[in-house]
Automatic annotation (TrEMBL):
Record family assignment: Belongs to the zinc-containing alcohol dehydrogenase family. Class-III subfamily.
UniProt-recorded name of the protein: S-(hydroxymethyl)glutathione dehydrogenase
Gene3D superfamilies tied to this protein: Medium-chain alcohol dehydrogenases, catalytic domain, NAD(P)-binding Rossmann-like Domain
Gene Ontology BP term (one): formaldehyde catabolic process
PROSITE patterns cross-referenced by the UniProt entry: ADH_ZINC
EC main group: oxidoreductase
Organism (species): Nezara viridula (Southern green stink bug)
Catalytic activity: S-(hydroxymethyl)glutathione + NAD(+) = S-formylglutathione + NADH + H(+); a primary alcohol + NAD(+) = an aldehyde + NADH + H(+); a secondary alcohol + NAD(+) = a ketone + NADH + H(+); S-(hydroxymethyl)glutathione + NADP(+) = S-formylglutathione + NADPH + H(+)
Gene Ontology cellular component list: cytosol
InterPro entries linked to this entry: ADH-like_C, ADH-like_N, ADH_3, ADH_Zn_CS, GroES-like_sf, NAD(P)-bd_dom_sf
Any Pfam family: ADH_zinc_N
Keyword Membrane appears in the UniProt entry: no
Length: 380
């Protein structure tokens, strides 16, 4: 048994003291896990666009000071009373979409949105309404039920997936969010069929994982759309059959470009940016009668979508997707196995690696357009 069990752990965390400010590496105190909670030593975490979105002050649920991060992997350090499904030493991925298996959402095959702890998670707190983090006498909020930008974190038992302990943490951490989300949006939410025509707006890690999912589903045309011309090379590498840059068609309504290219529109379209104007374009570029458009991107506070209702009357469907539609505790260990047997590539998403103290450079990279994912080493 580790000598930290039942004790407060003092460790480094990247604290977000306020929005729009760089993270600050601080010594924080991490309390022991309470009942049905798990304390995790985080080995690796990646940065997702959603961390930047919340730090940028765009998240209506953003609370500060907090410990951000939700795309991580680590080892269970200790467990609270009543925890039965994981034990110290287990390799785990924290889950921002938990799976309690008891609530009406978990019992429904129609959704992966567990409702058990969503309220307190959105309040930046553990399920009992308190925080496990303090720093310089101040309480820090949790983030998305994960807070992986720390050497140690505490999460609910229903928010951890136990995974293969042979799997490399610097790759499988990506299954905590971006890759699982994009891949599942294609396979679960859209349920893309063989021979389909698809367009994907926004070729970051999420959009490229959609492309991978569409390729796995044997779509015949996968059109990658991004304003960054450097994304062409990634588009083709991750399964797009063609790449198109809307900035090359400034004199046209871009949805018409796609509609003309595809004889009336795509069977499936995906928005992976968080831009409500593009969400409309993606819907309207889907085919009359049967087109399905999936919103994955997270839009800034106050933004709303619109279209003419006629677009829906004439048979298009607008859908949304959180965490790829995966029932998380059941599915994430299987996705790790897919990685281990080489059916779900992760390595090529990791374009940058940084030590913990350079985490702010990871945000710069995310904004630079050069990077798909930066993986941070929290503990060796
Ligand atoms: N629903 C869910 O469960 C999840 C949602 N998300 C959300 O998904 C979105 C994508 O995340 P991620 O892949 O990490 O983000 P990235 O920022 O890495 O990728 C977004 C891409 O879109 C490009 N882009 C920006 N504006 C346009 C435009 N007008 N037209 C075409 N392309 C454009 C960007 O180009 P450039 O590089 O030049 O900026 C970039 O390549 C975010 O909104 C994120 O918050 C993420 C995970 C889960
Ligand atoms: N907090 C925001 C919405 C943020 C959001 O939509 N989050 C996604 C995951 S994004 C991951 O990188 C999600 O799963 N949402 C479902 C949920 O229950 O949070 C807001 O309040 O608008
Ligand atoms: Zn994310
Ligand atoms: Zn549930």
């Amino acid at each position: 048994m580790s000598d930290t069990v039942n004790k407060v752990i003092k460790c480094r965390a990247a604290v977000a003291w306020s929005e729009k400010a760089p993270l600050s590496i601080e010594e924080i105190s991490v309390d022991p896990p309470k009942a049905f909670e798990v304390r995790i030593k985080i080995l690796k975490t990646a940065l997702c666009h959603t961390d930047a979105y919340t730090l940028g002050g765009h998240d209506p649920e953003g609370l500060f000071p907090c410990v951000l991060g939700h795309e991580g992997a680590g080892i269970v350090e200790s467990v609270g009373e009543g925890v039965t499904t994981v034990q110290p030493g287990d390799h785990v991925i924290p889950l921002y979409t938990p799976q309690c298996k008891e609530c009406k959402f978990c019992k429904s095959p129609k959704t992966n949105l567990c409702g058990k702890i969503r309220l307190t998670q959105g309040q930046g707190l553990m399920p009992d309404g308190t925080s496990r983090f303090t720093c310089k006498g101040k309480t820090l909020f949790h983030f998305m039920g994960c807070s992986t930008f720390s050497e140690y974190t505490v999460v609910a038992e229903i928010s951890v997936a136990k995974v293969n302990d042979k799997a490399p943490m610097d790759k499988i951490c990506l299954l905590g969010c971006g890759v699982s989300t994009g891949y599942g949006a294609a396979l679960n939410t859209a349920n893309v069929e063989p021979g389909s025509t698809v367009a994907i707006w926004g070729l970051g890690a999420v959009g490229l994982a959609v492309a991978m999912g569409c390729k796995a589903a044997k779509a015949s045309r996968i059109i990658g759309v991004d304003t960054n011309p450097n994304k062409k090379q990634y588009a083709l590498e991750f399964g797009c059959t063609e790449f198109i840059n809307p900035l090359d068609y400034k004199d046209k309504d871009f949805k018409d470009v796609i509609i003309e290219m595809t004889d009336g529109g795509c069977d499936y379209t995906f928005e992976c940016i968080g831009n409500v104007n593009i969400m409309r374009t993606a819907l309207e570029a889907s085919h009359k009668g049967w087109g399905v458009s999936v919103i994955i991107g997270v839009a800034a506070s106050g933004k709303e979508i619109s279209t003419r209702p006629f677009q829906l009357v004439t048979g298009r469907t607008w859908k949304g997707c959180a965490f790829g539609g995966w029932k998380s505790r059941d599915s994430v260990p299987k996705l790790v196995e897919e990685y281990m047997n080489n059916t779900l590539p992760l390595d090529k998403f990791v374009t940058h690696q940084l030590p913990f103290e350079k985490i702010n450079e990871g945000f710069d990279l995310l904004h630079s357009g050069e990077c798909l994912r930066t993986v941070i080493t929290c503990n060796e």
